[in-house]
Amino acid sequence: MTDPPDTTPDTTPDTTPDRRPGGRTARIRAQVLDAVRAELAEGGHERLTMEGVATRAGVHRATVYRRWRDVGGLLVDVIDAAGEIDWQPPDTGSLRGDLTALNREIQESLVVRPSPALALMAASFHSPQAARAQTRLWADRYAQCEVLVERAVERGELPARQVDARSLLIAATAPLYHQLVLLRAEPDPRLPEQAARAAVLAAAAGAFFVPREADT
């Protein structure tokens, strides 16, 4: 026997996008995305449902279905919302200091419990939509952080040759994900600075230089 159709009146204000800053649309979106994060933290992707999100958010489920369509749509919007945060890369005055500060931010985001960053990474393995959104977010963050390398070249910390900034950034940050996500090791307060120092030494030695045509 199937469940009877839901005939409960939808009293939630219309969520059609409007031009007012804040407003009903922004409030409802914030409620729903907060609910998605909480549901992910408690039960993971496997237990994330449209109905559960609607109940936790205090929003009629018809509204959630109408705007986000399915769980994949909810995950995409949560990830997109992370990219909307007005975040700026560290500026400590040195490449090593910048990378260390960046690594400390990453470590903090991975060790806090519950960790929204970890929950979204796990969910992206179950949803192609979320995986694409996660890739966009990471690409944007790496692009933002390329300024760290540009400033290092301007300060003379790195030789004035073209440096593959993304490769340098990946080398500096990868040990955090390896230790905390793959190995699930206890956080090491020394690791952010150690990984940054290793990447800077490798960069100074030419590990991330883009070969010139004459060199190939």
Automatic annotation (TrEMBL):
<dbReference type="GO" id="GO:0000976">
    <property type="term" value="F:transcription cis-regulatory region binding"/>
</dbReference>
<dbReference type="GO" id="GO:0003700">
    <property type="term" value="F:DNA-binding transcription factor activity"/>
</dbReference>
<keyword id="KW-0805">Transcription regulation</keyword>
<keyword id="KW-0804">Transcription</keyword>
<feature type="region of interest" description="Disordered">
    <location>
        <begin position="1"/>
        <end position="24"/>
    </location>
</feature>
<dbReference type="InterPro" id="IPR036271">
    <property type="entry name" value="Tet_transcr_reg_TetR-rel_C_sf"/>
</dbReference>
<dbReference type="InterPro" id="IPR009057">
    <property type="entry name" value="Homeodomain-like_sf"/>
</dbReference>
<dbReference type="InterPro" id="IPR001647">
    <property type="entry name" value="HTH_TetR"/>
</dbReference>
<keyword id="KW-0238">DNA-binding</keyword>
<dbReference type="InterPro" id="IPR011075">
    <property type="entry name" value="TetR_C"/>
</dbReference>
<feature type="domain" description="HTH tetR-type">
    <location>
        <begin position="26"/>
        <end position="86"/>
    </location>
</feature>
<feature type="DNA-binding region" description="H-T-H motif">
    <location>
        <begin position="49"/>
        <end position="68"/>
    </location>
</feature>
<protein>
    <submittedName>
        <fullName>Transcriptional regulator, TetR family</fullName>
    </submittedName>
</protein>
<dbReference type="Pfam" id="PF00440">
    <property type="entry name" value="TetR_N"/>
</dbReference>
<feature type="compositionally biased region" description="Low complexity">
    <location>
        <begin position="1"/>
        <end position="15"/>
    </location>
</feature>
<dbReference type="Pfam" id="PF16859">
    <property type="entry name" value="TetR_C_11"/>
</dbReference>
<dbReference type="InterPro" id="IPR050109">
    <property type="entry name" value="HTH-type_TetR-like_transc_reg"/>
</dbReference>
